[in-house]
Amino acid sequence: MSLTALFLGYGRMGASLGEAWIEADLVQRIDAVDPHRAQDVKARVYRSAAELPDTIYDLVIVAVKPAMAREALAAVSIARLRNASIISVMAGVSIATLEQALPIACPVVRSMPNTPVMVHQGCVGLFGGISVTSPLRDKISQLYNAVGKSYWVETEEQLHAITALSGSGPAYYHLFSEALADAGERLGLPSELAKQLAAQTALGAATLQCGDGANFSSLRQEVTSPNGTTHAAIEVFEKDSALRCLVTEAVVKAHQRSIELSQG
Asked: Which residues participate in the annotated binding site?
C-alpha cells in the first residue's frame, strides 16, 4: 500500500505500530510529531506540527495522551487532513469527541491495541464511525494484522470490554506469572530459573490456546490426570469458583473504570 501516514505521538505504542508498518511495506512514508522522540526510528520525527512538510496524509494516527487529543488535532492544518482517515489508539476518547476536535469531517476509527504489538503478537479491538467504508476497514485490518490480530466490534461501547479483557489483559498474565515464579522460589528453585519456567510455560500454553479449534477447557483437562499433581492444584483454584470469581470481579472493575475515564 502506498500510504502516507502522520503519527501524532510516537512513543512506545505509536512507534511499535509505525515501525512495523514500514517494515511490512504497508506504508510508503511516516511523519511523526513528538517533541520527546529522538530520530532513532525509520519515521521522520518533527518536534511540532508547524515543522511538518506540505503533505496530504492518507492516515493520521492519534497516539498522544487522551488529554492532549484536541490540541494535537487542532495543530494539523486542514490541507494535510483533506484526504485523511483518523485512527485513534487512545483509551476513553469517543469518536464523537474526535470528530468534534477535527477541523473538517474525516472517517474516524478507534483502536484498542495491547502491549504485545511491540513483539508483533498484539490483540487489537477496532470500531469505526458511520463514514468508515468496507475498503477502509480492510485496509486498517491489514495494518493491525502486521502486529498481531485485529477484531472489529459492532458498537463503540464494546471497546470498554475489549479494554478490560485484552487491553489490560497482558498485566493479568504477568501478575499470574509473577505469582507462579514466586511459588517456584518458595519450593526451592533459583529465582531466575523460576521466572524462565513461568514465562516458557505461559508461552507454550498460549500457543496451544491459539491453535485451530482449541478449547480452553479441553486443554486444561488434558493436563489434569485424576488425583494427580495438576488435579491437586486445580482443586484449590476451583474451590467455590474462587479463581473464576476473582477474575470476573477484576475484569468488571476494569470495565467500569474504562467507562468512568471516557466520561471525564
From this structure: 8-13, 63-66
Binding residues for NADP(+): 8-13, 63-66
Q: What is the CATH number of the domain that holds 244?
A: 1.10.3730.10
165, with CB counted inside 10 A (0-12, 13-18, 19+), is middle
Q: Which of 168, 30, 24 is nearest to 87 (CA)?
A: 30
Q: What is the pLDDT of residue 82?
A: 94
> Beta strand 108-112 with 122-128: parallel, antiparallel or unpaired?
antiparallel
CA distance 257 to 140: 27
Cβ proximity of 147 and 113 under 8 Å: yes
Does one domain contain both 146 and 174?
no
**Residue 1 confidence (pLDDT):** 65
**What is the number of alpha carbons within 13 Å of residue 247 lying toward its C-beta?**
13
Q: Of the residues 101, 127, 154, which one is the last residue of a structural domain? A: 154
- The pTM score is 0.93
Same domain, 43 and 80: yes
Q: Are residues 92 and 198 in the same domain?
A: no
The reported pLDDT for the residue numbered 38 is: 87
The per-residue b/e assignment along 135-161, b for 16 or more CB within 10 angstroms, e otherwise, is ebbebbbebbebbbebeebeeeeebbb
Q: What is the pLDDT of residues 85-99, one digit of tens each?
A: 999 999 989 999 999
Give SS3 for 168: coil
Longest C-alpha distance within the chain, in Å? 70
- In the chain, the amino acid numbered 37 is R
Supply angle C-alpha 9, 15, 17, rounded to 5: 110
Its domain, for residue 213, covers 169-262
Same domain membership, residue 173 and residue 141: no
On whether residue 163 sits in a domain, the answer given is no
Name the DSSP class of 103.
S
